[in-house]
Amino acid sequence: MPENRAFRIRLQAEPAIEFEGQAQHSVLEAALRAGFRLASSCRNGTCRACMCRLLSGEIAYRIEWPGLSREEKLEGWILPCVALPRSDLELAPARKT
């Protein structure tokens, strides 16, 4: 996949935000480059502060990240700080309780 390929990333928030991401940058990096601040802390896939549910699209990780259980991955949870977009994405942030 070309490194400079651009994808549309939409986060279902109040209000919804949309920004462009590239294959070589994490979803979190793409949001920050576009001027949006997403929840984050460690930026290495372990703290889970940035957890979002992938509603549509495809992501990839460079390595297997320890921050999500197998069940969470099957339920569609991702870590935007280390997730690389591979298509247009639609995400929903984790609900804070």
TrEMBL record:
PROSITE patterns: 2FE2S_FER_2 (PS51085)
Listed SUPFAM superfamilies: 2Fe-2S ferredoxin-like
Key words of the record: 2Fe-2S, Electron transport, Iron, Iron-sulfur, Metal-binding, Transport
Record domain 2Fe-2S ferredoxin-type: where: 7-97
Annotated Pfam families: Fer2
Co-factor requirement: [2Fe-2S] cluster
Family per similarity comment: Belongs to the 2Fe2S plant-type ferredoxin family.
Source organism of the structure: Paucibacter sediminis
Classification lineage: Bacteria, Pseudomonadati, Pseudomonadota, Betaproteobacteria, Burkholderiales
An annotated Gene Ontology molecular function: 2 iron, 2 sulfur cluster binding
Protein name: 2Fe-2S iron-sulfur cluster-binding protein
